Amino acid sequence: MLAATRPTGWDFPLFLHVLGAMVLVGGLTVAVAFQLLAWRKRDPADVAAFTRAGFRALLAVALPGLIVMRIGAQWVYSKEGWSGDNDPAWLGIGYLTADLGGILLLITIILAGLGARRLRRSGGSKSVLTRIAMPLATLLLIAYVIAVWAMTTKPN
């Protein structure tokens, strides 16, 4: 019922926020799937291909999704008139996952990129960096799913 009574001036910023969140979670899901496939493959060419695809999903899909989601979130926050005092719990969960998750996403992208580069140079042998990036991306995906739950159910 709350969404039915919000001013129409909030529609576009809220749309940007939700669109960015969907792209972010989708990009992370694809990256985790590719990294999991790379982890399970034995052929060096397959490992390198799936690792590069996972890195590209993080860099070209998840990172822009995070940026759009964060811009939309801040825009909606300013329009709603929150002051930072007595903000609801769901808002805190969103900020925590967006800000700390953004830092962790950058670290994951760097590790996945360096791991993909090492795979190319070494001829496709397994890389420790890509083995670290996959659990980090999975952790991020879980955190963002929790944030989506908090944004939709709005627990206090």
Could you please describe the fold and organization of this structure?
The longest helix has 37 residues, at 44-80. It is built from 4 helices and no strands. The chain has helices at residues 11-40, 44-80, 89-122, 128-153. The mean pLDDT is 88. The protein is elongated. The protein is an all-alpha fold and 156 residues long. Helix 1 runs antiparallel to helix 2, helix 2 packs antiparallel against helix 3 (89-122) and helix 3 packs antiparallel against helix 4 (128-153). The protein has a single domain, classed as Four Helix Bundle (Hemerythrin (Met), subunit A), CATH 1.20.120.
Short account of what is shown:
The protein is an all-alpha fold and 156 residues long. The chain is built from 4 helices and no strands. The longest helix has 37 residues, at 44-80.
Key terms:
156 residues; mainly alpha; Four Helix Bundle (Hemerythrin (Met), subunit A); 0% strand
Order of helices and strands: HHHH
Enumerate the spans where pLDDT stays under 50 for 5 or more consecutive residues. none
> What is the number of independent domains?
1
Q: Please identify the top-level CATH class.
A: Mainly Alpha
**Strand residue percentage:** under 5%
Write the topology of this structure.
Elements (H helix, E strand, L loop, with lengths): L10 H30 L3 H37 L8 H34 L5 H26 L3
